[in-house]
Design a protein that fits this description.
The chain is 22% helix and 20% strand. It is α/β, with parallel strands linked by helices and 411 residues long. Helix 2 (142-156) packs across helix 9 (391-406). Bound molecules: 2-acetamido-2-deoxy-beta-D-glucopyranose (NAG) (8 copies). Belongs to the PC-esterase family. TBL subfamily.
Amino acid sequence: MKGQSAERIQSLFPVLLASLLVLGTAQLVFDSLKSAKSYVFQYYGKPEKLRKSVFVSPEDRMDESCNLFEGQWIWDNVSYPLYEENSCPYLVKQTTCLKNGRPDSFYQNWRWQPRACNLPRFDPLKLLDILRDKRLMFIGDSVQRAQFESMVCLVQSVIPKGKKSFKRDPPRKIFKAKEYNATIEYYWAPFIVESISDHATNHTVLKRLVNLDSISKHGKSWEGVDVLVFESYVWWMYRPQINATYGSMEDVQEYNVTTAYRIAMETWRNWLESTINPHLQKVFFMSMSPTHLWSWEWKPGSRGNCFNESYPIQGSYWGTGSNLAIMEILHEVLQDLKINVTFLNITQLSEYRKDAHTTVFGERRGKLLTKEQRADPLNFADCIHWCLPGVPDTWNEILYAYLLQSYQNFL
Ligand SMILES: *[C@@H]1O[C@H](CO)[C@@H](O)[C@H](O)[C@H]1NC(C)=O
Ligand SMILES: *[C@@H]1O[C@H](CO)[C@@H](O)[C@H](O)[C@H]1NC(C)=O
Ligand SMILES: *[C@@H]1O[C@H](CO)[C@@H](O)[C@H](O)[C@H]1NC(C)=O
Ligand SMILES: *[C@@H]1O[C@H](CO)[C@@H](O)[C@H](O)[C@H]1NC(C)=O
Ligand SMILES: *[C@@H]1O[C@H](CO)[C@@H](O)[C@H](O)[C@H]1NC(C)=O
Ligand SMILES: *[C@@H]1O[C@H](CO)[C@@H](O)[C@H](O)[C@H]1NC(C)=O
Ligand SMILES: *[C@@H]1O[C@H](CO)[C@@H](O)[C@H](O)[C@H]1NC(C)=O
Ligand SMILES: *[C@@H]1O[C@H](CO)[C@@H](O)[C@H](O)[C@H]1NC(C)=O
């Protein structure tokens, strides 16, 4: 973890990022969960529609000083997974590992246990109460898309057929809970700022060109969204340098990735500061999602990757794929912000989960792997994306915990 110099950028792309957006059809079960012993609190909505109730039980309340990102994974095959892979019609093929042939399902049965407190139990109806008349939007790459899908799956089972909808409107995907007038949305923007990879389905993977000072085209679609959740990392980490423009679109130059990342984040910061109303909107930023491309990092002497891993890493671990220079840039940019952005630092907790990637049970360039490719995990295992149900559910449990705290009134 220490000896990693700022210049060292690992190339994270032996596997091409699959990018096909697929959409399923709806099936559902109604299942009311409102707890009789809940306390009623008020939450802050838009001023014109204040005073809607969110039920917050004593177990939901967190000590604000508790660090949710420090803790361990506990085996819990009673409460986990929080939904079944085949009960959520909105999952894309890229994440449905069991259906794609993964033989073990242990990766679904781990619960994240923070050291100093408990995560509140995820209650879809409470989340819908919070999101009433609101929009929650996830913005980023395919890793972020999995978090969006996870959130939809966590929520959708409590909504009866006909009262929910799902549509693709590239670069957006939109899930709507009609009775709540609540939407959970996804917006494809792998670099957050604009780039030649912005087409949601037909984007270049090998050729990258980022417009470091351009964000307004995307930003238009983000304006007024009540809860924004950003993420951008893995697309930057292809080579130590990246082609980018700043100022003139014609003036393409090679930038060090760290330099380019900082400029892009500053563009994003300026957009936030000029656009966000901190009284009405909440902004989150997800830290980098770790990769497990080289098994020698947790099993010295081995020469594989995340394929055939069935258990989380025990003890301290930080892979070289999670670039600390990028982490430091985020730290600095967020520190300077004039509005509050909550940084969800999920990197460390996800680092332990070498067992939870899609490996050969996912897609490559929009297609499931062939039998021959599956037989060659050294070349074809995907150690970037995660199976669902899985690790992104935990990211959402943490996001939910924060939302629950910020939309309740402690008076
Ligand atoms: C880019 O990185 C190289 C080493 O990887 C370093 O020598 C150089 O100073 C960096 N340039 C800038 C502008 O940061
Ligand atoms: C849950 O895990 C325990 C301990 O590994 C095991 O004995 C039990 O059979 C498992 N239960 C189910 C339903 O898989
Ligand atoms: C539904 O939600 C949208 C987006 O949050 C909001 O603009 C609109 O006013 C809401 N509609 C009603 C009828 O409250
Ligand atoms: C994808 O984009 C490329 C370059 O912009 C274009 O030439 C190609 O026709 C597009 N393919 C599809 C299927 O839209
Ligand atoms: C930048 O673009 C040029 C021209 O297309 C290409 O030769 C070069 O390899 C690119 N640099 C990087 C870091 O991708
Ligand atoms: C997977 O792991 C098991 C036990 O750890 C081992 O016996 C088996 O040979 C491994 N399979 C491959 C393809 O590496
Ligand atoms: C995120 O967590 C890691 C590991 O716990 C830590 O090293 C890093 O400094 C944290 N990042 C920020 C920006 O706080
Ligand atoms: C940011 O959050 C802190 C702590 O919750 C609060 O004290 C502060 O006033 C907030 N700042 C802004 C600009 O909203």
